[in-house]
Design a protein that fits this description.
CATH architecture of the largest domain: 2-Layer Sandwich
Protein name: HMA domain-containing protein
GO molecular function: copper chaperone activity; metal ion binding
Radius of gyration: 19 Å
CATH class of the largest domain: Alpha Beta
Pfam families: HMA
Keywords: Chaperone, Copper, Copper transport, Ion transport, Metal-binding, Transport
Number of helices: 4
Number of domains: 2
Family: Belongs to the ATX1 family.
Shape: globular
Structural class: alpha+beta
Length: 125
Amino acid sequence: MLSCCEALRNRQHCQIWIRHQVIKQLSPNSLAQNHNYPRSAASFSVRMSDEHTYKFDVKMTCSGCSGAITRVLEKAKNDGTSGVSSYDVSLENQEVLVTGTILYDDLLEKIKKTGKEVRSGVTVS
């Protein structure tokens, strides 16, 4: 019989293996072969090099909350590799606007790492 820790480790390992298998099967080239999709990742309509504007509704109750998000976005902007060109954090409107080449999911992850609740997010342009 497995201990709780061993069972959890085995479950996590299985989930990771399954995700890896699904991703391998859904590579851009396999999609192109099976479903008449574009043959390379570069030919998809949304590319990493395209600049987008994202708008997030984030629960912020004080200047410390908005400051935490500002610090994360400023760090991403200054490192030059994250793809954040500009941002605006509005405590009054509970809103975060970010422009850059960063992917939506990567940006969402950065904001969530601050511990703030992201109520919604959309791609504006």
